[in-house]
Amino acid sequence: MSILVVGSVFFDSLQTPHGTVERTLGGAATYFSVAASFFAPVRMVATVGEDFPQEEIDFLTERKVDLSGLEIRPGRTGSWKGRYHDDMNQRDTLDLDLGVFSDFKPQLGDDHKKAQYVFLANIDPRLQESVLDQLAAPGIIGCDTMNHWIAEARPELERLLGRVGLLVINDEEARQLSGETNIVRAARRLLKLGPKRILIKRGEYGVIQFSADSVFAVPAFPLEVVFDPTGAGDTFAGGLMGEIARSGALTEATLRRAIVYGSVMASFVVEDFGLGRLRTLTKEDIQKRFRQFVSLTDINPA
Amino acid sequence: MSILVVGSVFFDSLQTPHGTVERTLGGAATYFSVAASFFAPVRMVATVGEDFPQEEIDFLTERKVDLSGLEIRPGRTGSWKGRYHDDMNQRDTLDLDLGVFSDFKPQLGDDHKKAQYVFLANIDPRLQESVLDQLAAPGIIGCDTMNHWIAEARPELERLLGRVGLLVINDEEARQLSGETNIVRAARRLLKLGPKRILIKRGEYGVIQFSADSVFAVPAFPLEVVFDPTGAGDTFAGGLMGEIARSGALTEATLRRAIVYGSVMASFVVEDFGLGRLRTLTKEDIQKRFRQFVSLTDINPA
């Protein structure tokens, strides 16, 4: 089953303690699509400017990402420039140019409207809801958001959350949205807003998932070098939704496996600048690291 | 097999967002002993003043903690007063009176010297090493330390680490001692100092263990209320060493199970002030929470 993702495609210029890179392909929809494409076909709905290079179109097409929903408009592709602090846990925005993304109004084609697996990457919750309004018979809907929308569009965000099944959010955002410091109480409050499952990303500490009747926690893969954390959360979501769509059902077992695959994909993407590591990644690499996750977390090893 | 622990017995006065308590029984050796006593017999070597109440002697004796190494000296039992910040991750020392602990010189009796399972709780590394010098044929030695000794007695601490098998340390201390920000590189450096296994406590994020050929990570148990985090690390070490001594061997499987039991014990102790929760805890409570840890971390649930 294919996945529909709606979100941003950007160029990122990054400064990390390990070096700098100029205008590398980024954006939530991009990271998500490339990660998910290892598991299931992906249809991307996004907008870029006329400056968007053919070679990146070719790269995404080779990864079997359907770009019929990628609108190319007069103007510039959005771009972001950021600098990470030494501990990689904080970053500053040095420059932001939304370009054509500032007028993004997601329009679904007829094929998109039939999507059963949908991920609403971090954009204005009003746009996220407009996507849901266009779907014929929505199935499994995941969404992300960010501190800006929690502060500036809370009513719209809460209305959206009443219509999604999985909320993928980081721990600071979970605290901000719920008003609870304790992460368990935060998750319980967020469940009341609608989503059946709350997936809280905790950076180097991994992911913890809450539903009404289960809790599942998985550590992040311990890496000696985190080269560039950009896109790790969107890559996690791509692996997650990819494995759910591949499985075709959302059981507890599928969800847990999908969270681990999401963590596997995130552990790869941070090993190089931007999408670099995902460009050379193989399914064998993914399976090997999945087995390493099993070993990392196995309470009763053979 | 019994466990020998050497460390502090204190009275703690605590202020947390959930309330305050005056002069409750605390100290690393106390938390360790009570936790370990659920798994194996414990012999405690420590010192208290003449003000130490008979009812606490009775409590520890009922828990089958051998107090033949508890020296009662003229003067006051050490006491500490601390206040936790709202997020419970930081605390300030308001008052510290070492009392008779300031002259603590651990002296092992003949039975103590034969110990095969030994835990050196956080005290001056010179005193920790003096305990090792008194052992007849040391078996499995664990130790803890703190930022003060890393800064003030690094050569002595490094010499000690060449003689211990398990280092139990928190993440900040691991970074300080290794000079590495990344926790994987920090652990690799600490392994070079001597210990076969480095166990890094990460507070609400659980524990990660490194050896030359394995990595194991377990989350902390997600609790809606952390009432009082005092002693959580020592309680973890007690459950850990207790299960290792109960098993009688240090295989990878034993170590992982022991880390989970340590995490189980720590998850209980923070549910009440001081040792409160451990005073009423049962083996059934422990087994039930162990099963909850299995469920919490199981990548392939049935």
Features:
homodimer, alpha/beta, nine-stranded mixed beta sheet, 25% strand
Question: Any overview of this molecule?
Answer:
2 copies of one chain form a homodimer. The first copy, chain A, has helices at residues 28-36, 54-62, 110-113, 125-134, 147-152, 154-161, 171-178, 183-192, 232-247, 252-269, 276-280, 283-297; strands at 3-6, 10-16, 19-26, 42-49, 65-73, 78-84, 91-97, 117-120, 140-143, 166-170, 197-201, 207-210, 215-218. The first copy, chain A, is an alpha/beta fold. In chain A, strands 5-4-1-8-9-10-11-12-13 form a 9-stranded mixed β-sheet, with helices on both faces. The first copy, chain A, has a 4-stranded mixed β-sheet with strand order 3-2-6-7. In chain A, strand 8, helix 4 and strand 9 (140-143) form a beta-alpha-beta unit. In chain A, helix 7 crosses helix 8. The first copy, chain A, starts with a strand and ends in a 5-residue tail after the last helix. At the A-B interface, helix 8, strand 13, helix 10 and helix 12 of A face helix 8, strand 13, helix 10 and helix 12 of B.
What would a concise description of this structure say?
The structure is a homodimer of 302-residue chains. The first copy, chain A, is of the alpha/beta class and 302 residues long.
Estimate the strand proportion of chain A.
25-35%
Sum up the overall morphology of chain A in one term.
globular
Structure summary, number of beta strands of chain A: 13
**Low-confidence regions of chain A:** none
What class, by secondary structure content of chain A? Answer: alpha/beta
Count the DSSP helices of chain A. 12
Oligomer: homodimer
Gyration radius of chain A (Cα, Å) is 18 Å
Q: Terminal Cα separation of chain A, in Å? A: 35 Å
- Largest interface chains and counts: A-B, 38 and 38 residues
Largest sheet of chain A: 9 strands, mixed
Mean pLDDT of chain A: 96
Could you spell the SSE succession of chain A in H and E letters?
EEEHEHEEEHEHEHHEHHEEEHHHH
The strand line-up of the biggest sheet of chain A is 5-4-1-8-9-10-11-12-13
